[in-house]
Amino acid sequence: MKRKRETEKGSEIKYAIEELSLLIQLKTSDNHDAAYIPTRPFLYVCNLVIQVLDKIGPTMAVLRQDINQNVKRIEMQCDSDSSLYSNLVDILKKEADDGNARKGTSCSKAFVWLTRSLDFTVALLQRIVKDPGQEMEEAVKESYNITLKPWHGWISSAAYRVALKLIPDTKTFIDLLKPKDENNDTLTEDMETFISLLVPVLEEIYSILTLYRLDKLKST
Fold it and tell me: Which residues cross the membrane (predicted)?
């Protein structure tokens, strides 16, 4: 699921800012008595995060695959009835009512892991903004340890430990993130904007996951 872009000159971070702004606009412009996370805008943001993680290279292949599979799972559910499942919270409610929320192929579990992947991305970008000179391997390791590792079993954790050996240096990652005609200061501003938009959304999502008792789910 990807939007068509009129230009290829912008960075993935800029596009993610656009999608987040749209998501927030939809949340605030419509009257919703209950919790509301627009399904398709959320999935668009996740797809753009995949493109950001691609810049790190094969190291993020495991996480990239997880995000892609989870996006497709929710997308299929949404496509089955776009009006009924336009709100991700309605999907959580239905699966909870049906007793399917904790099953391996549930959209609820997919939503949990997509949220954690976004949390990892925020943590990583925060470290790069704070200290562009920090080694990329260390930044990825620290971000992983506080966002994904607590929920991973030994199999997933082992896969990430191996992947850490393939990480590029920080300068290479930054150069890959920004368009050729953009300077580092502009990219830093974009990352700060992206973080400031996404963090409140993630906080709301974690409150919703806690409400549905999904916040403690672990993998193998």
Answer: none
Looking at residue 74, the DSSP 8-state letter turns out to be H
The structure tokens 């999608």 sit at 19
pLDDT 10s digits, 32-64: 657 899 999 999 999 999 888 888 877 677 788
CA dihedral 128, 24, 103, 48 (to 10 degrees): -50
Q: Are 186 and 178 in contact (CB under 8 A)?
A: yes
CB 110 within 8 A of CB 73: yes
How far is it, in rounded angstroms, from Cα 56 to Cα 174? 10
Q: Does residue 163 contact residue 60 with C-beta atoms inside 8 Å?
A: yes
Which residues contact residue 75 at a Cβ distance below 8 angstroms, ignoring those fewer than 6 apart?
Answer: 1, 43
| Buried residues in 167-177 as b, exposed as e (16+ CB within 10 A) | bbebeebbeeb
